[in-house]
Amino acid sequence: MLFCGFLQGGDLRYCQKCSLYKPPRAHHCRVCKRCVLRMDHHCIWINNCVGHANYKVFFVFVVYAVTACIYSLVISGLLLVPLCIALGVLLGWHIYLILHNKTTIEYHEGVRAMWLAEKGGSVYNHPYDLGAYENLTMELRMIVLFVFLPPSCLKWLTSFCFLQVLGPNILSWLCPTTTHIGSGLRFRTSYDELAASPDS
C-alpha cells in the first residue's frame, strides 16, 4: 500500500518517467524531468526543485525575506503589508511542515489519504510523523546545546525536525549553506517505531 511516497513493507518504488527505482519520499518533477529526494515543491522563484539537498537554503531564504520585509515595513510604512503577510504565511507554512516532518507534496497526499481512510472507516497517520513529543525531543538524546537557554526554548530549538532540515550546529542555522542530516534515502517512520516497540 502506497502512502505519501512510502511503500509499507519496504518494497521498492519505481518511477515510470525516469525508468529507475526511487527511494521513499522522492518524487518526479515534471519541470526538472528527474526524481528529487524528499521533494517539497518546484519553486518558480528560484527555478529549481526544493528538496532534501536544498530545503535548508530555501527555508533560510524565506526567513531572510520575512525579516527584510518587516524591516522595510518599519522603515517605509504600510506599503509592504500585503507582501509581509504573504511571506509570513509562507514561513508559517514551512515551520508547520517541519514540525510535522512533512513536505508540501506529502501534506497534499495526506489530505487525500485521510479522506480515503475516513471514507473506508479507518484512520490515516502520516508515516514520517513520529508524534509531537518524539518530533520535538528525538535529538535531545544525542546532543546538548545552549545550556543557558530555558528548557522550553531548548526543546523547540533542538527539535529533530528542525535539526533534520537546518543541521546539528545551531550557530550555522542562519547561514545559507547546505547542511542536512542523512543521505535522503532513508527516513525513520512510525512503522519503524511500531516494529521496535517491545509490545509488538
TrEMBL record:
Native species: Eucalyptus grandis (Flooded gum)
Protein name: S-acyltransferase
Enzyme class (EC, first level): transferase
Catalytic activity: L-cysteinyl-[protein] + hexadecanoyl-CoA = S-hexadecanoyl-L-cysteinyl-[protein] + CoA
PROSITE patterns: DHHC
GO molecular function, one term: protein-cysteine S-palmitoyltransferase activity
Phylogenetic classification of the source organism: Eukaryota, Viridiplantae, Streptophyta, Embryophyta, Tracheophyta
Family: Belongs to the DHHC palmitoyltransferase family.
One CC-aspect GO term: endoplasmic reticulum
GO BP: any one term: protein targeting to membrane
Pfam families recorded: DHHC
Membrane topology: Multi-pass membrane protein
Domain Palmitoyltransferase DHHC: 11-81
